[in-house]
């Protein structure tokens, strides 16, 4: 038996992207409604394109100018001439001429220890002061007048006779005075250089001390941190 071909009813394809059609219709309705409202109220909305490239250039130009001003201010604050920088953490002393490093030396700075007078009425803290100072004066073959703490630390009563306080050897061959009793000077204990062992002064080895004495003028700035 043979079957003759016959037409088969094919159902129509389901609508494709029906959600896009709905969205398009909703958008069209929203736009039309907005136009009607604008016409009724008598207002018009104008949309202007933003030139983002122009904004970027303006920001970059502004930042560049701000950077230039900041660099200018920092340059004006930079020390001129010769000066000293003392790193109390690493125990290093650096000599600069403008922005050029002339010499780096190992030094010793304050120990941070505290000494209490036997009476309990006075306390000394042996720290090297931080901040900015100036070289007030320079002396060759300096003489140290030992204060009370120098004797109390060793277990002695401070003498009444001032001549017994005179020490001609402990400060070395040169001294640069920074005020308030703080000095850049030499030491008898050069094996302790690089350690925080002083009573607040800055100690240097013989050759480094001579260089600093000859290189740094009175009035030069000293920065301690």
Descriptive key words:
225 residues; alpha+beta; L,D-transpeptidase catalytic domain-like; 10-stranded mixed β-sheet; two-stranded antiparallel ribbon; 4 helices; 14 strands; 29% helix; 27% strand; elongated
Shape label:
elongated
Low-confidence residue ranges = 1-11, 14-24, 26-47
CATH superfamily of the domain at 81-224: L,D-transpeptidase catalytic domain-like
What is the CATH C-level name of the domain at 81-224?
Answer: Mainly Beta
Structure notes:
With 225 residues, this protein is α+β, with helices and mostly antiparallel strands. It has a domain at 81-224: Beta Barrel (L,D-transpeptidase catalytic domain-like), CATH 2.40.440.10. Helix content is 29%, strand content 27%. The protein has four helices and 14 strands. The chain has helices at 18-41, 52-77, 148-152, 206-215, and strands spanning 82-87, 92-97, 100-110, 114-116, 123-125, 131-134, 137-140, 144-145, 166-167, 174-179, 182-185, 196-198, 202-204, 221-224. Strands 1, 2, 3, 6, 7, 10, 11, 12, 13 and 14 form a ten-stranded mixed β-sheet that branches. A two-stranded antiparallel sheet has the order 4-5. A hairpin with a 2-residue loop joins β10 and β11 (182-185). The longest helix is centred in the first third of the chain and has 26 residues, at 52-77. The protein is elongated, with a radius of gyration of 41 Å.
């Amino acid at each position: 038996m043979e079957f003759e071909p016959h037409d088969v009813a094919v159902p129509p394809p389901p609508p494709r992207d029906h959600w896009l059609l709905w969205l398009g219709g909703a958008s069209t309705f929203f736009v039309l409604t907005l136009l009607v409202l604008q016409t009724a109220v008598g207002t018009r909305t104008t949309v202007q394109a933003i030139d983002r490239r122009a904004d970027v250039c303006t920001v970059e130009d502004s930042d560049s100018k701000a950077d230039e001003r900041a660099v200018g201010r920092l340059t004006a604050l930079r020390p001129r001439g010769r000066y000293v920088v003392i790193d109390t953490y690493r125990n290093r002393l650096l000599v600069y001429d403008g922005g050029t490093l002339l010499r780096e030396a190992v030094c010793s700075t304050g120990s941070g220890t505290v000494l209490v007078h036997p009476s309990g009425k006075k306390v000394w803290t042996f720290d090297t002061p931080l901040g900015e100072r100036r070289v007030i004066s320079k002396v060759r073959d300096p003489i140290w007048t030992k204060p009370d703490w120098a004797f109390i630390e060793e277990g002695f009563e401070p003498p009444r006779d001032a001549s017994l306080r005179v020490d001609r050897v402990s400060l070395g061959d040169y001294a640069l005075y920074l005020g308030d009793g703080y000095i850049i000077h030499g030491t008898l204990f050069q094996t302790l250089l690089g350690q925080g062992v002083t009573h607040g002064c800055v100690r240097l080895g013989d050759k480094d001390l001579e260089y600093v004495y000859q290189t740094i003028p009175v009035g030069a700035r000293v920065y301690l941190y």
